Fold this sequence. Notes:
Elements: H1 3-29, H2 33-42, H3 51-60, H4 65-74, H5 84-96, H6 102-149
Helix pairs in contact: 1-6, 2-3, 3-4, 4-5, 5-6
Amino acid sequence: MTRIAAERVKLLEKTHLLLVTVKGRLEYYREPVDELIDSLCRADGLGGLFFLEECRRLECDGMPFCDAWKKSVLEGGLSPPFKKNDLEQLLSIGAAIGSANLDSQLVKLTLYEEILNETIIRARTEADKNGKVYTSLGVSAGIIAGLMIL
Length: 150
């Protein structure tokens, strides 16, 4: 598995954890958006999603949540390893938070969770495939180098 592909898979998995945490906190605690972001910043397992702290800071400075989320995601240093589609999915999650009544938010977030699960599966497959190719190239290069020496 290449380093960037492995980082992408890891960040996608953290994004999945973020999504599950958001759904749980909305459904069970019914947290307002500003408290939700505070909870996410303190949550275990979400380290590496640096945009959360920036989002909270921007929101505390008076920026509306949706704008703060978008700005912090786009400027959060996630690309690479995130691809454009990954960033769009993360932006969609932020757009769903606080955008409608609770039931509508949960429906949207559940849909985004299913899409994210598929993205993670594809990213793992791609990372494994590329890792095998690079391993094969390394072995082949070693064999060729050995033959050239003989």
